[in-house]
Amino acid sequence: MQLFRHVVVVTYNWPMKTAVYHGPNKVEVTDVPEPDPRPDTVKLKVGFNGICGTDLHEYYAGPIFVPTAPHPLTGQQLPLTIGHEFAGVITDIGSGVTGWQEGDRVAVEPIYKCDRCAPCRSGHYNICTQIGFHGLMSDGGMAEYTVVPTTMLHKLPAGVSMQLGALVEPMSVAYHAATLGDVRPGDTAMVFGAGPIGIGLWFALRGKGIEDIFVVEPSDTRRSAIEALGARTLDPSATEVPGFIAEHTDGRGADAVYEAAGVTPAVETALACVGARRPMVSVAIYEKPLTTPLLSLVMNESRIQGSLCYTAADFEAVIALMADGAYDTTGWVTPIAIDDVIDEGFEALHAGRKMKVLVDPTS
Asked: What pLDDT, on the 0 to 100 scale, is given for residue 286?
């Protein structure tokens, strides 16, 4: 009699810790199975994931961007693991992947695009008509592991830390906006708002060779933080900002103003400062409609230029500047453990106790 031995192979995905968004004021830190890479994707062990201003809007007023029906590009919807500002190390590779290997350190450009609409076909996929984001329209990076398409990967040089890597995404938002202002060395630029994007704009403008920069910020805490990095600031409660800029530029006005505050007083003051035929670049998220003095634009032939996200070129430019030591996290970036994401993350940011929080999903 012949005996047959049947071997059963059981695949078990170990649980990992994640931050799952269920709706307004509900993010749950919970265990879910580790994901496996699919074709043309890689699995990352996340180093750090930043809490974005968009995440705050979702937590307190959402869902705004998080879909409540399956997203056309990702097929996912609420609830999902949040987190779109992150860097990590490749731990596993899906079939069909070339050019990447386990151990590569990467920042993630988290855009899902259709590749069919007019913006995509023209190369401006950052305004894809069906745009999605890893961590807003799919399970994201506020987890121990996540799986992303290789099209999202940007290699980090050895000298760029995981914390800096997690900041590439928001700093690329700022770099893209800085580019749209079309400023050149010798120009005068103004940044309204000294939050993380405002700080990123200051770094980006300096990286482009702009030295004459003023950051307008009413918060003492935020002014102090960016002053410690070397920035010149203006307190709008103590300085008549348009008059100051007019005198500083001999009546020319600023060559570009960047609105990263998202509030009516900042918009009105920015438009009063911008020079003739020059732009106000708007890079804030506006929860409510704002009253805008359009007559200022008419009489000045100036304009409002919107700015959304970034492209691969912005990511590569920021990573190169980081490798050259152009970015400093001192005094404005705080790492926290994922278990503290509510109290020391969302609540602390909302209360103004912290400026930028990076979540460590392994601690």
From this structure: 82
Q: Identify the DSSP state of 236.
A: T
Contact 99, 123 (CB under 8 A): no
319 and 156 Cβ atoms separated by less than 8 Å? yes
- Give the predicted TM-score (pTM) of the model: 0.94
Beta sheet of 256-259, edge-to-edge order: 232-234, 212-216, 188-192, 256-259, 279-282, 303-306
Q: pLDDT tens digit string along 232-249? A: 999 999 999 999 999 999
258, 190 contact by CB (below 8 A) = yes
Tell me if 187 sits within 8 A of 210, measured CB to CB. Answer: yes
3-state secondary structure of 61: helix
Among 236, 178, 243, 248, CA closest to 212 = 248
Reading the block at residue 7, the tokens are 């071997």
Which alpha helices (H) appear in the chain, and where do they start and end? 53-61, 118-121, 162-180, 196-207, 220-228, 241-248, 264-273, 294-300, 312-323, 348-351
How many contiguous H segments (helices) and E segments (strands) does the chain have? 10, 18
- Quick: pLDDT tens for 133-170: 999 999 999 999 999 999 999 999 999 999 999 999 99
What lies within 8 Å, CB to CB, of 111 at 6+ separation is 125, 126, 128, 131, 132, 133, 134, 152, 309
- Residue 351, SS3? helix
Within 10 angstroms of residue 89's Cβ, the number of other Cβ atoms is: 18
pLDDT score of 5 more than 80? no
d(CA 357, CA 146): 19
Spell 318-339 as b/e; 16+ CB within 10 A means b: bbebbeeeebebeebbbbbebe
Burial (Cβ within 10 Å: 0-12, 13-18, ≥19) of residue 184: exposed
Cβ proximity of 31 and 13 under 8 Å: no
Question: Which two tokens mark 126?
Answer: 């950052």
